[in-house]
Structures are given as C-alpha cells and as structure tokens.
Amino acid sequence: MKLPHAGVATAVLVGATFMATVTIAMPAAQALASRVRFNMPATITAAYGLGQILGPLLASALFARSHSFNPALLVAAGALALGAALCRPSVRSARPAT
C-alpha cells in the first residue's frame, strides 16, 4: 500500500531537523566569531555544504562495496560522535577563573 503523503511528511520532518540545526548553529557561530580570525558563519556554512555533497557520495561508495547500508551508518555515527566530542567544552575552559 502506497501512502501518497508519506514523501511529503518525510520531507517536512527531515527538513525541520536541518532548519533546527541551522537555527542553533548560526547564533553560536556568530557568538564565537569575535574569538577567531576568520568568518565563522561562512566556515560553518561551507563545511555543512561540503558534508551535504560528500556524505551521499561516501554512503553510495560504501553501499556499492558491501551491498548494505550498515557501513555508511557506522561512518555517520562515528562522524556524529566526533562532532559531539569536538563541541564538548574542555575541562580547563569550564572551570571558573581563580
């Protein structure tokens, strides 16, 4: 049974997560922009775009080799874990100055 609105619902739900990511990331990038010597919002936008291009290419190559999405999902999970680890504040910066 085909659900005619399933594609639209999927697009709305997935698209909402991307909008939320941008809504959270851009103010954070603007807040950090004064601490770095480059355009942080532009860098984040470029990195996001690069990931949007390279992610499907890598997933396709991994699927072609293994005929399974498991390797691509593992790589995606690893990238997510790495991103989370890089966003975690360091212990030194979290301590109040004495």
User: Any idea what the shape is?
Assistant: extended
What's the order of the H and E elements? HHHH
Radius of gyration using CA atoms only: 18 Å
Unreliable spans: none
Please, what is the oligomeric state? single chain
What structural class results from the helix and strand content? mainly alpha
Total of DSSP H or I helical runs spanning 4+ residues: 4
How confident overall, as mean pLDDT?
84
Helix content: over 70%
Characterise the protein shown here.
This protein is mainly alpha-helical and 98 residues long. Helices cover 78% and strands 0% of the residues. The protein is built from four helices and no strands. It has helices at 6-32, 40-66, 70-87, 91-94. α2 (40-66) runs antiparallel to α3 (70-87). The chain is extended, with a radius of gyration of 18 Å. The N and C termini lie far apart (66 Å). 0% of the residues are buried.
Defining key terms:
mainly alpha, single chain, 0% strand, 98 residues, extended
Topology, pairings included?
Layout: H1 6-32, H2 40-66, H3 70-87, H4 91-94
Helix pairs in contact: 2-3
Write a concise synopsis of the structure shown.
The chain is 78% helix and 0% strand. It is mainly alpha-helical and 98 residues long.
